[in-house]
Fold each of these.
Amino acid sequence: MHSGILNINKKKGISSAKCVSLVRKALNQKKVGHTGTLDLEASGVLPIVVGKATRVSDYMMGKDKTYETLIEFGKKTDTLDAAGEVIDKSDKQITRSDLEEVLKNYEGEITQIPPMYSALKVNGKKLYDLAREGIEIERKERKVTIYDIELLDFNFPYAKLKVTCSKGTYIRTLVDDIGEELETFAYVKDLCRVRVGDFGIEDSIDSDDILDMNKEALILSLNNLDMALDNFPRYDLHKKYFSNAKFIHFVSNMGKNLAFIRKALVLYYCIRDEETPKYVKAVLAGALGYLILPSDMIPDALVGVGWLDDLAVISLAFKVAGKYIKPVHREKAEKRIPFGENDD
């Protein structure tokens, strides 16, 4: 199974789900997903998570995003973009300076009401499905952050903006709100997402090219899933541990916090100490072995014994080791897994 993140440039008119389907077909792999829906009428960066990278999709969804949008003033559509029907018009003229002045009000934290034509769900039903049935319901305001909003071009009735924003920002709503503040109407004529986190459109693969690419080339285009976690602290174990496959399996799969891992390291160093009695080493090795073993290898007699959870095993092992756990064992463990501000 291949794992990683593909930087896909979704073309206008193709759904995010369709992009996922194309990648599944190209890689002949089922475990594929996207990291947040990009509107059908929008184009641009759509990170596709493959294999183990599906585990970090939520972190990708939380990344900051940058959009370039073409606005047309004087018209309002029911979907707030070019796909909808024009439902109102205005003849009011605005100038570049008028727009620049209003844009200042949209920097920083703002509130938005999600549009009815959106993928948000209410009672299990998507808002756009309700909108197509002619049903409009009340939506709660949400806070989002506009980190930067830049006017790239202005030629009334058109303007081009570049917006860097937080998760959950609706550019269609932003444009509609700007139009209202200018006492006119405005809608998104074109929208392109040019960046998600560190994924830029300049390094993307066109969705039209996915099936035409050589499979090996597509695999080589997979980015490391660590890119989704770049805002978290990194901890590196000494390279000598990579020779101990069981220990690495234990650290990478037990899913515990750093304090727990450090305690396991203390036991490990106690076992390696020549002054530790053999019977103590045997008990500690048994404890670590229990933690390392996959669940299907644990003896039936031990399955379902409530007190035999990982924390209990570690605690019992420390009691058995007692005085044989030395300060130097703790110091070595701390060097491998340093204490953090929020570490217990």
Amino acid sequence: MSRIDNASPGGRFLGKILTHAPTNRRQHLSHMSTPEPPREASGQRLRESGLVGKGFTSDVYAWGEGRVLKVFHAWVPAATVKREFRLARAVYAAGIPTPAVFDLVEIKGRLGIVFERVDGPSMLTYTQARPWTLFRVVRQLAELQAQIHGCPAPLEIPTQRDWIAHGIAAAPDSSTAEKEAALRCLAGLPDGTALCHGDFHPENVILSARGPVVIDWTSATRGDPLGDVACTSRLIQNAGLPPWTPRYMHILLQCSRTFLHRAYLQRSLELHAGTRQQIAAWQAPLAVAAKSWRVPGTPNPS
């Protein structure tokens, strides 16, 4: 497998991903029903907390010893936050390397989730400091994704087919005919039982001292690994970097995107039984569904 430089927190070969749930993790399964109403948290405490990260949908603050609070922007629907809370608990309980989930809170009308704090750069941040590692990192991304696919998905997680079909039905700016065509394509694609992340890209992998840790499981499903590869394939080909990413990274991505995609697909197909044509078959339904998943203010990856 590819190696990340030893200078990095994740600087070692990828270990075998945990495929069983230790006793303390299985205890989380008892809380997998609909989350209780969020606890009220102090706005003063949030103001006094240090910002440790930010994303398109949320900001992350230090929240006591060994914990962080992911506070979602006010426009994010409560159902989306509760979905992430529920799915993140299920994935953690299944034994996947992901932060523990502690609480659902509300601060002045904004919902947040309290997670275990995991220190280390994301794969994207790591490559910003070491652009020459970009191709090694994208191959390692494929390897980590394949290991996740080797883990059976918890039954609490929705099916990939249902998740994509729901996205197609909710897609704005798509005609009835376009939606029906996308659903027909989806109907001809295989089901599966693998754990699929649904939004797997370098910003969602933290290179910690204990190895890679995967975050942001809002789009997690139970389905076909090649469908999940197709999601990441689409992101590598079309998605833009966050606006706060250094300009040279935007230029580097623009120049290398085709080759990065080729490297990712090549490594993915070495690790999965399948073909490029089978991956490509997912793209038509994903293109329509993704219109309903797009974050406001970001480009539409077409």
Amino acid sequence: MAEGKATVDANGGLNVRQKASKDSKKLGTLSNGTTVDYYSDNSGWLQIKYSGKTGYIMKSYTHTTGGATGAQGSSKGDTNVKFDVDKAVEYNKKRNYSKDLWKQIQSKAGATADGAPGKETAKAIAQWQGSHGLTADGMCGAGTLQAMGLSSSTATESSSKKEDGKTSSGSANVSIDVSSAVEFNNSLNYTSDTWKKIQAKVSVHADGDPGPNTANAIAIWQNKNGLKADGKCGDKTLAKMGIKAKTKTSSNPSSYSTTDVPKGNITAHFTWDQFKCKGGEAVPSNLRDGTRRLCQNLEVVREELGGKPIKIVCGYRSKAYNEKLREKDPVGVAKHSKHMDGIAADIRIEGVKVEKIYNTIYQLGKSGKIKKGGLGKYVSSNFVHYDVRGGSSWTTW
């Protein structure tokens, strides 16, 4: 039996996971404004049914009714709703709704219809939410708009905005692959503090979680600042923001930052030359973020094995070179090799057996110190394959 209903409040949609974890396999995506039944509410995750299967969605990107949270402060006519007014005002201002839409919201909620989402408006919204069975938080997201019978179609930013006396063009109507952007951003392994800095820069709620709203906000910021608007916060976007990233893959993340490394290096101990294709091609610029993530994880492996140098037997492969290898070994060389994506390396360490390298990488992934992905053991050729394709478990061979 369902505990209550949850309405998605995420402009780019909300991922449905197989398990209650951001690292779990994605089953699909719920569109913004979609309402579903949920069957349990644990540790920030709601259990739902999706395409006949059990799935999980992050509660922070929904408005719920029913259950313990939905019932709190939701009685009809309740005038003593407790919530964080300042947080609600900040959230509402960042929705970038048109003034006319805010007047409609205010009229519905019984506030002064002046088109300005201040404290009076937040309090009126919370009262309205409480009396209509919604979570009374004063935040007017997609769920509340839907319950009010209003449309957020006018909730876009102006196409021209004054910044430091200059006019810059940009629109919130940027079309991106949100799921791809969210997956990419999560794979970066930035610390929560880094994400909070990024979120503050793009004017979205700074919770340290790179979800759909963050990806959309990044895309809008990128568009305004002359970058490719894909919602992915890689090196170019970070540099433009003036933010120095720290990652979660090392006991000393700052030593593997994207800016504090020797010239020509990817990280402290790996160079771009090491990852060149055997055919002579350098790692393409659009793949370099992935190669950098791989090397940040390899730095942890290197440290765990006593700081011994890691030899890159094979790094990036061009499509042409991969096909050339497949002609010689069509079974052993994958058609869609992760080497072609720049996120794989075949490695060797002098004086360390293949089994030890393999087991060390496996345990580091299991303990969460490095990213899980593909892991292969090639004893006769004396190397280990490691890639950062992602996933909640290892793909081993």
